[in-house]
Batch of 2 targets.
Target 1
Amino acid sequence: MRIEQGNSLLRVKAANQSTILRTIYYLGPVKRADIAEQLELTLPTITTNVNSMISAGIVREVSIRDASQVRIGRKARLLEVVPEAYHFIGIESTGTHRCVSVVDYCGHPLYSHYDEQVCADYQRSMEETCQVVKNCLKHCRLRMEDISGVCFGLPGWVDREEGILRVHPRNRWSNKNICADFREITGYEGMVIVENNASARAIGAQFYRRREMENVQSFTYLLVDAGIACPLVVNNTNYIGSVVGAGEVGHMVMEVDGRQCICGNRGCLEAYSSDYAVIDRCYEEVQQGKAQKLKALCGQVKPEMFQIVEAQRRGDTDVTAIVEDAVKVLGTAVANIINFICPDQMLIDCKLFNIEKNQELLRREADKNLCNKTYRGTEFIFVDPDRTSGALGAAAVAINHALETYLTIE
Ligand SMILES: [Zn+2]
């Protein structure tokens, strides 16, 4: 329902309801009394709201035996959300790959599809993505109308309010109305959100690692893919962080008049450390008859990142030199980012860090350039490269949005 301006009682009720649901969602299984204490609300307020959530099938009581890991008194009954209550779809489409995941209310993936046949033509790409979505739903025996929210994670400049992709850097798409086009092709009438894919991964990391990241006030998520982005997330109350911009650090200038970047400028971070830069430089070596171990893996065609990592593992010195160069520049960029914003944690999502000595090199280069006067210590976490993490991150954005806007007041 719509709440008219000035109807403050309804506003308070609505805010309470969604806050109570979020508390059950993130802390469950949890006692009613603990929710009341945490939110500074009365027990009757909690009970009324919880009862309506139970009858709506969103929240359930768990028996003491099910929640044996939680120490509780004999008679207390715990509350948790019902995983099957809602379903969401997360999509990541970067221009080089596409992943679609169907998840339940708790974010557990039910089915994921990954492919690298992404078409550069917008209309065709969108139609194909919608077809993939339908196929995924079929696997889960769900219909489009069973889905409570869809989120697209896309690289570049995204207008969240309008659901429009303003600029897709690689595919040169501009002002594409993702929400309207998805709805038109699929006939879907529910919530469709568009988010920058690095931001979606950051939100996803927080969502899926929430126990470990409970006390982390701020973190950045450095995503090295075709491009490089580093969104900053500041944790606010109620377990949902806010992304402060997509952190397009890829075009931070690392060398004055340096290498040519796709953006037209020179010396950008992406021209040294992005997947594209590393792949192009390795491919040049292969074409010149160097990087023999890589050539054995990729033949005459452009190598992929996993082949480059494997060639380095096998001791290809030409490949190693290129990778180390990319990691050094990235390490310097990492120091610049930390000097600028001092986050508690930096999550690093980059295929090159599958190799531990690349992680060490990054730390060394970052250390060298961190400002001793202001550095308060940032914890580095190397995220295991996972093909589905972008789509799952997008699904987490859709779930968070549904939790924030939960409303059943009649
Ligand atoms: Zn650039």
Target 2
Amino acid sequence: MADTRLIRIQNLSKRFETLKVLEDVSLDVRIGENLVVFGRSGTGKSVLLKCIIGLLKPDNGQIFIKDKNILEISLNELNDIRKNIGFLFQSSALYDSMSVRENLAFPLIRHFDFSQKELDEKINNTLELVSLSDAIDKMPSDLSGGMRKRIGLARSIITDPELMLYDEPTTGLDPITTKEISELILNLQKKLNMTSIVVTHDLICAEIIADRAIFLKDAKIVHEGKIEDLSKSDDPFLKNFFSNEIVKAS
Ligand SMILES: Nc1ncnc2c1ncn2[C@@H]1O[C@H](COP(=O)(O)OP(=O)(O)OP(=O)(O)O)[C@@H](O)[C@H]1O
Ligand SMILES: [Mg+2]
């Protein structure tokens, strides 16, 4: 039977000196799935994403991406896998001194050998996907926060990644823009057949995007399931988390 898992994480542990951040975490992500990762601040969500992309090395455990153990492959092989992964960082900073066009060209020039015509085509098509064709010659400082997020999103999908990792994609946005960006993420994911892992505190975002969610606490995955199930759970910790988030979101 064909393996439907894009990512297989087994018994992952990561500590910084005496601080245990992840302990014995195991997780599969299926091809095409949108997994949301919840957890209080400092529970290792960003560390988990950084381990998956090979920016941090775990102390123990295995991470397979499409059956390649990323902890045992050469740097060249790891770079090949990274070409296939888009990462929208928590800050999602654009290069301020570069225009939108130059920001979008950057990952293409770094990873591929496209002609100018191909570059222009890719940039135009991707800007169309995020409905910001008019912004091509603007500087980041001329854009609103929501527009900057869209351009950041465009920059991370322009290389056609199979896997997208989002770290707090809607932080700092008002509820309406949060909804728009979350719907955009979902639509892009469907159009481009991507698999996504989305770290978020934001219930509006999670409800729009998630097929499944996990909840990290005390270095472990303590809950896993559909958002509705997690939010209706009797578990005092989850109840508290969701009621706090709802208060924040309203
Ligand atoms: N490179 C590092 N060196 C030392 N400690 C680190 C490093 N990266 C992360 N940590 C620590 O690991 C813990 C988990 O960090 P992480 O950034 O994953 O949290 P998080 O769940 O993403 O939090 P937030 O929701 O605030 O972004 C924190 O206590 C953090 O200080
Ligand atoms: Mg984080």
